[in-house]
Structures are given as C-alpha cells and as structure tokens.
C-alpha cells in the first residue's frame, strides 16, 4: 500500500483507504500487555491509550520492526514510540500494525 496515495492529513491523523477502516498515526506511546512469539502474530497484545483504552492485537510490517521491540534488556518494561496502522471493524479499533519503531525515543516504564 502506498501511504501517499489517497492520504489526507487531519489533526495528526493520516487517513488511508478510509473505505477499508484503516488509519495511520505517528509517534504513539505503546506498551506491551501480552506477548506470545512462539506463534506468528497470535497472542500479542499492546496498549496505545491515546487511541483505545483496551489492549489490541499487534502485528508488524516486518520482522526487523518486531525484533527491535522484543530484544534487549527490559523490552517488556518499556514504552515505545511507534508509527501504527490502526485497523477498524464495526467502528472500533481491532488491530495495531506497527510500521515503525522510533527506538531512540523508547524509555523504561518506571522512568519519569
């Protein structure tokens, strides 16, 4: 999907293919709630409170992005700044697809 095609910027949102219920938000604060990397894209849930108050299923645009968020020390106890594609069904967000991780801006949950 070409993000620049059919995109309209509006208050920090970039609406892409609105007919299909997909939106992209940049630099959103994300934290892991549940992970299960033994199975491909099953059982992984994350929270972006700015978008939805409940954890949603998480997938990744690539293994490179995925590996940048599950490796290293304390990866489960970090906030990540991510660019995310939000997929909707029945007018509710159902899935986060992480399309970019701003690694240099991640920080531990306990940091103030």
Description:
It is a single chain. A five-stranded mixed beta barrel has the order 3-4-5-7-6. Strand 6 (78-89) and strand 7 (92-101) form a beta hairpin. Mean pLDDT is 82; it is low at 1-19. The chain has one helix and eight strands. It is mainly beta and 112 residues long. The longest helix has 8 residues, at 63-70. The chain has one helix at 63-70, and strands at 7-10, 13-16, 22-34, 45-47, 56-60, 78-89, 92-101, 107-108. It is globular and about 40 Å long. The chain has one domain.
Brief rundown of the structure:
With 112 residues, the protein is mainly beta. Helix content is 7%, strand content 47%. The N and C termini lie far apart (37 Å).
Question: Can you give keywords for this protein?
Answer:
single chain; 112 residues; mainly beta; five-stranded mixed beta barrel; disordered N terminus
**Helix proportion range:** under 10%
Strand content: over 45%
- Tell me the radius of gyration: 14 Å
Please give the alpha-carbon distance between the first and last residues.
37 Å
Side by side, the strands of the main sheet go 3-4-5-7-6
Principal-axes geometry comes out as globular
**Average pLDDT number:** 82
H and E order:
EEEEEHEEE
Major sheet description? 5 strands, mixed, barrel
Query: Domains counted in the coordinates: how many?
Result: 1
* DSSP, total strands: 8
Look at the helices and sheets and give the structural class: mainly beta
Low-confidence stretches: 1-19
């Amino acid at each position: 999907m070409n993000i620049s095609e059919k995109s309209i910027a509006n208050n920090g949102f970039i609406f892409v293919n609105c007919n299909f219920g997909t939106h992209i938000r940049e630099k959103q604060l994300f934290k892991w709630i549940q992970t299960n990397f033994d199975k491909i894209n099953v059982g992984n849930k994350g929270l972006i409170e700015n978008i939805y108050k409940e954890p949603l299923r998480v997938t990744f645009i690539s293994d490179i992005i995925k590996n940048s968020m599950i490796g290293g020390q304390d990866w489960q106890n970090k906030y990540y700044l991510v660019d995310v594609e939000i997929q909707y069904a029945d007018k509710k967000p159902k899935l986060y697809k992480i399309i970019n991780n701003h690694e240099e801006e991640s920080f531990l949950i306990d940091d103030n």
